PP2C family protein-serine/threonine phosphatase
Amino acid sequence: MDRLIAAERALRTAAPDALLDAIRAVLIEQYGAEDVELLMADYGLTVLQPVSVLPHTLEPVPAHNSPAGRAFGSQEPHCEELRDGRARLHLPVSVRGDRLGVLSVTLPGCDTARQDQSELAEIAGLLGREVVVAERDTDLYLQARRKDRLTLAAEMQWQLLPGRSCSRPEYELGAQLEPAYAIFGDNFDWSATADRLMLYVTNGMGEGIEAALLTNLAINALRNARRAGISIADQAALADQAVYAHYHGRCYLSVLMFDFDLATGRAKVVDAGSPQLLRLRDGVVERVDFEAQLPLGMFEETDYVPQDFQVEPGDRLVFVSDGVHAVASPKGETYGDQALARAIQSTRLLPAAEVPRAILRELTGHRGRPAPDDDALIVCLDWRGRPDGAAA
């Protein structure tokens, strides 16, 4: 426990850009570590990038078929035995279910790794929380997340997002946007209290900076209304007014909005446009349709009416933008419900955080080329529900 306290103190007192140096010194002194590296998942979730002063001095490693990638995907420590008898322990760095990267610690041998694995995993969690706080004051960790330069529109969109995954006893969420380094207007947002989860899935309009500006205006209008404590129908109405006041109907935004009761699974829904929902329940995938209402900002002073929806423990909800559902193959065949249902079935054993990236890989195969013509957004929600009598 004294070693954990030493690690926590070192992280808490370190400069924002010196967290890795601080934790490396503690692990060398207290655990006999011979090398310590922090790898951050890139925006496309394809590689794990080393944190170092630019330009990077270490090569990235694959996020899916490497020892570090195995720890990242499983969210469990993975011990890699090295040829010289040493061991490299890969530890997931996550904060409340949001997967940031991996802490790799080289130790004298497997026995040491197994003995200290639990404490080192806790230290990796402490490091993750400090990284999130430090990102307010340094670009170091954000720079380590990108293997290519982001377009300005993509920079604006990533800064708008709440994270890429999160987990609570009642649910698990995962989301991904493509093309990760050149996204335009698609977006997702979520926020939870002790009793409720609000989730927005947005299908943007236009391209480049104009699309990013439109989405930023709409999402911040929704957040402003949500933080005032009003219902999702009124949130939609106020965001609609904000968008219309600026664009006068020239630009508008499609959004699918949910307000879940964590205790019961009952939800209020506003369907204002094109994002779609598919549900996996008891092994069967089906599309869930709601009464379509006008997109935000299309006309002045639109009234929105919430609809009722019930989610059951064990349900998996997959939300997609039209850049997924409507994408065409080289022969002109749309991806559509059937292909989506097959993709959802084939990924049913993966955790929610892994599902969006896996489906997007299948979508790339259907499209026949790596670069999409439109944003592609997938959000996966696994609903576990709250046990009877459980506290918030």
Remarks:
- The CA atoms of residues 338 and 382 lie 21 Å apart.
- The mean pLDDT is 91.
